[in-house]
Structure prediction request, 487 residues.
Amino acid sequence: MASKKLTEICLQRGIIYPDAEIYEEMSGFYDYGSIGTKILKKWKDEWRKFFLTKDNFHEVTTTNIMPEPVFRASGHLSHFMDPVVECSKCGNKERADQILEQELDENFEGKTPEELTKIIEEHNIKCSSCGGELKEVGNFNLMFSVDVGSNKQHKAYLRPETAQGPFTAFKREYRANRKQLPLGLAVIGRAYRNEINPRKQVLRTREFNQAELQIFFDKKHLNDRQAFPEIEFKVKPVDSKEQTATPQELVNSLNLPEKYIYWMAKEVKFMKKLGLEDIRFRELSDEEKSFYNKHHWDLEAFMPGFNDYEEIAAVHYRTNRDLKLHAEESGQNLTIASGDYYPHVIEVTFGIDRNVYALLDNALQSEDDRTWLSLDPLVAPYDAAVFPLIQKKSLPKKAKRVKKMLEKKGFSVTYDPKDSIGRRYARTDEIGVPFAITIDFDTLEDDSVTIRERDSTKQIREDIKDLPKILRQLKHRKKLEEVGKVI
Ligand SMILES: [Zn+2]
Prediction:
């Protein structure tokens, strides 16, 4: 179960809520509200800044609907299936591996329908809604199909991952970018999966946001020495116990290419930058791995609301499989001219909604009757709030001027003149605004304001003209005590 308090805040404060909720619920679809969209945008901005500043790494914008041959080639048409079992009495359809997981408390992901049918029979598992007999386990393709054209000339699908766009566009982008490798092609966009059982808030939905980076490179550089970031992180290999190590130590202890470990380390660094600390990489077993991967490790974040680690990103070594299969299916030559070979691909992939949710879930704090989101300033919906102490004299006018001045300097600022100052603090605390600036009667005398920090509720008093400098320092994690005198 998701945290009840967080769900409440998400609904009431315009962060995340079910789509079209004035109608009967169609589960697995969520909207980001006015505040949620600001957080989402900041996350994407940070992702772009972090991953797309390398030479020859670019963002492309590809379509959501792609023709059937793309997915015949990629393997999604035949492999992108979940095992589904139907009740012979009430017709209820459920994911076979999930019923078994609930009943037997073991992981059955990746088992074939035949294996699952056998286990259901052995343990005499019944329909979870009516207790009726279950039929044989079948396969259910997770892609949404679309008929294109008035005469349904083309069979197409909503993309189940953003990755295929960069693969089909590879040759053109390779030429457009002066035929150089490595070439990074990123897509930030939506993907669609017709999940049998959407659940866990935005962790498993039918329409979701992904940020995926496909890195095309010459295989001979797979084990080149890498300039690893100085960092250590937890890893859980399939066949040994959890360990904490630096990237260099992992080169020696895990049987993984250096380039692959480099991108694991980069993902960890990005998460830590945004304030997620309790994370680990988990290796997937051969049964769990996606069908297109040679190496597949998920990055999991601990989520207090679920009291468990949940997958939020991954690094995939897709080899040259996708390009080779697209070349065969399309009849086009997708090798690169100079070497007459297919580049290999490492995919750096993020479920954006899961990342945003992990940040919110880990940020949720309460103390007595106070609740707040301790979001890192980099992903907070606003950099600061500006309040006139009361709606009298020229306080509101002065406050609006301060807001304008800060916005001109590039800060995002919210303004609120209504209610008591305490209630206004409470409201911005709940959406994670890290600093609140209050204009009071002293301000009219000496042009100074109070700056209140969300987490500690401590305050300093500073000149208006120093606000941009101070906010910038605070945003980059300077402590309140370091920039001013606490009052
Ligand atoms: Zn039933």
